[in-house]
Amino acid sequence: MKAAGGIIGLVIVLAIGMFVYKSEFTQGPTGGAPPAQTIDVAGVKNELVALAQAERLYLASHGSYAGLDQLQQEGSTTVANGARRGYGFTASVDDGQHFKIIATPTDPEKKGWPTLAIDDTLQISSQ
Fold it and tell me: Virtual CA dihedral for 85, 95, 76, 121, nearest 10 degrees?
């Protein structure tokens, strides 16, 4: 009888441990996104900032902003084929004086992940 009670107690403790593990370690620190998504989105935000800085350098040397193709031709960006981390990057330039770069998830496994954008104010927004 004591052995059966001990086994039942062990099963209960293991169930509580599994619940805590799932609730704490499969979601991000804020209870939102899983860690892999948080890491990839942070990387994409860093890419957006790097692209915006490349745009600013291009503006300083050419007097206007450029598209991603022009930045790649000059070697100002390391984003190959406009994609990285399962995201595709596109840039639109308004009269050469304003730009907006949008990062959209292209990997089918990243469906539902946020679409991010940065503009000439260097503010990242979620769309």
Answer: -60
Neighbours of 8 (CB within 10 A): 10
Q: In this predicted model, what pLDDT tens digit does every residue of 72-116 receive, in sequence order?
A: 888 887 775 667 788 999 999 988 889 999 999 998 988 889 999
Distance between CA 14 and CA 18 in Å, rounded? 6
- 30 token code pair: 């804020």
Report how far residue 19's alpha carbon sits from residue 30's, in angstroms, rounded to the nearest whole number.
Answer: 17
Q: Give the position of tokens 């992940």.
A: 113
| Tokens describing residue 40 | 């990839």
Tell if the pTM clears 0.85, that is, is over it: no
Contacts of residue 22, defined as CB under 8 A and 6 or more positions apart, other chains included, come to: none
